[in-house]
Amino acid sequence: MITQLDNTDHQASTAAHARLPALFVSHGAPLFALEPGDTGPALSRLGAELRSRQPVRGVLVLSPHWMSQGLRVMTGGQPDTWHDFGGFPRPLYALQYPAPGDPALAEAVLQLLQAAGLPAQADAQRPYDHGAWVPLMHLFPQADVPVVQLSLPASAGPAEVLALGQALAPLRDQGVLLLGSGSMTHNLSEFFGGEREPAPYVGAFSRWVESALERGDLPALLDYRRQAPHAQRAHPTEDHFLPLFFALGAAGAAASRPHYVSREVMHSMLAMDALTLEESPHV
């Protein structure tokens, strides 16, 4: 039997409100924590809007900065903030995101994965990597919403990550926000080029993805490396794009439609697209 989260606020809100959407955010470079651009305030508005609709019981994050052999789930009660990067300004390393963990939510995640034939191991020592805490600093700046991280299996492709989201989708009915944190484009070899205007390929790739999401064209998205324009340049490796499929699986890919909160481009090559996905009433 799957553990149900014991939360009276959730029980009261479920009857009155629709389930939480799934969310994909581009977390950009670590400097996004200090240089929010337009995307940071947009995420803050989204977080406030979500909390006005219903209590947010917790957040489950899949980030490409935790890759593992097999699946692992953060189970600690008070994870540390990990500054898992180097060469950035000193104030970045002073930032902390002291959100609590949630062992009960972690157990529910482990049980749902087991029920779906995707067994995972508990990891009580895992800290928050910057793929989690940087966007969450904008989304829930009070750091008062419990957070659990799920690892990205090193061998997973789009279909496997989609299945992870599908397995964990029931948590949306329990007041849990399922968050895929990655990047709509992510070619770090171009990060230090000094350009400021968005590179044309960034928009071509990002808007192809948006069109496929609007159409509900899951086969095209799963085959994006062959069908999307400039896919290899946008993602020399696909780890930062895979979290989109986690959100798609959690949302019910065929029946969900995107609501964009940001289409900003930073450093000419980092598309900061952030979007919610939830069931369309017209499908």
Using the 3D structure, state the CATH architecture: 3-Layer(aba) Sandwich
Query: For the CA atoms, what is the radius of gyration?
Result: 18 Å
Number of strands: 10
Low-confidence stretches: 7-16
Mean pLDDT: 92
The secondary-structure element order is: HEHEEHHEHEHEHHHHHEEEE
The portion of residues forming beta strands comes to 15-25%
| CA distance, first residue to last residue | 31 Å
Summing up helix and strand content along with how strands pair, one would put the structural category as: alpha/beta
Spatial strand sequence of the major β-sheet? 5-2-6-1-10-7
CATH fold call:
Protocatechuate 4,5-dioxygenase, Chain B
CATH class: Alpha Beta
CATH-defined superfamily:
LigB-like
Quick one: overall form? globular
The total number of structural domains is 1
The helix fraction, in percent, is 25-40%
Main beta sheet strand tally, sense and closure: 6 strands, mixed
Q: Helical segment tally?
A: 11
